Amino acid sequence: MQKNRMTVIRDYIVRNSKFVFPVIVIAVVAVTVSVALNAGNAKAEPAEFSDPVESSGSGEPGLPLEDTASAEEGVAQLRALNGDVPLTVNEDEKIQEIVIAYYNAKVNGDSETLRGLYDEVSERDMLDYLETAKYLSYIPALEIYTKPGLGEGDTIVYVYYRLCFVNHESEEVPGWQTFYVCTGEDGALYFKSGENITEEEAEYITSVSGQDDVIEVNNRVSVEYNDLMEVHPEMLNYMAELKSQIKMAVGVALAKQNADASQGSEGEQGEPEGGEENPAGESASEPQAPVPAGPQYATSNTTVNVRCSDSEQADKLGKVSGGTRLEVQEVLINGWTKVVFEGKDGYIKSEFLTMEENTEGLEVIGTVTATANINVRTAATQDSASLGVLAGGSSLELFADEGEWCKVRYEGRIGYVKSEYVTKQ
Question: Which range of residues forms the domain containing residue 420?
Fold first, then answer.
């Protein structure tokens, strides 16, 4: 029976995924490691591209509690009940299938499959999945561990994985991820999204993830990650830059979606009512004011707060990291810039932003090709923010050779790369 189950999983992997599992791993089952919800004792964060704790759940807690018991007492009872249940190598075929399907869809950027695995996926998370998929090559290892969940049919799933990135296939980067898997009314499993996890479930996951056997496996993954970064320090910088680039791309996509929705709404509101005449003979859909001149985008020079108005005393909407690209709505004379932040109006001190040059009208004089993975920066200085990473062997259009730096077109905007790390044509 066990042999047949493993054969099914092996055939599924071979047919549908970019995973490369050693035969021994398939025979032993997919194992998973993970620390979760703020329980980490790791020195570093191997899971640069792991998602926030994920779950899938439903139903009332499987342990009947007295009506007078508080939610905390109920969680405590369940914690005590499951406290002696060891972290186990998962052998459940359904758990294996949903985890494999998730990572396969994540590598391939399969949005339809990802949506089907969750009870709910936010637009931001989906954009993050799709952007990350552009840089993932394959997953050479995937291991799964489990602990009982809070409710009946719920399972806490810990996944240890190793990722290989495009143009970095020789370095297998380890990480871990936590999921909360629930059973639907039809018996199918699904992941419960972080937004839908209750306080009781979050407290329970945190408690279970802090148990000795989970932390022990987590520590092993952390040691493995730290060892890799000591041998290949360039990967630490590469992953940090890549994470920043993905975050920036997601922010731009959200801003564009919001702008498109706004324009559509304004178009509907601007239609004339009841066949009113337009004495000037102009189209009612034409804008009332000219499009403002000047840069339309800016890049943050460092991590900086975004506020709800142009004052340091105004409430914070959030913050952006260095290298984040923002749509500029207006540059104010009081030293603030009005930007689009997560689909809303936000304000940032102008001194922390670098306005982008317009590429229109610039003459392309050639191309540059990276001889290694290099940063593309907002200005011709080593200290300027990074727009992203240009992979070795990739090329960009060249606008100007400025000696130590080359002025190039990067994702539709002006960027700068060090001349010593490129060849020019």
Answer: 366-424
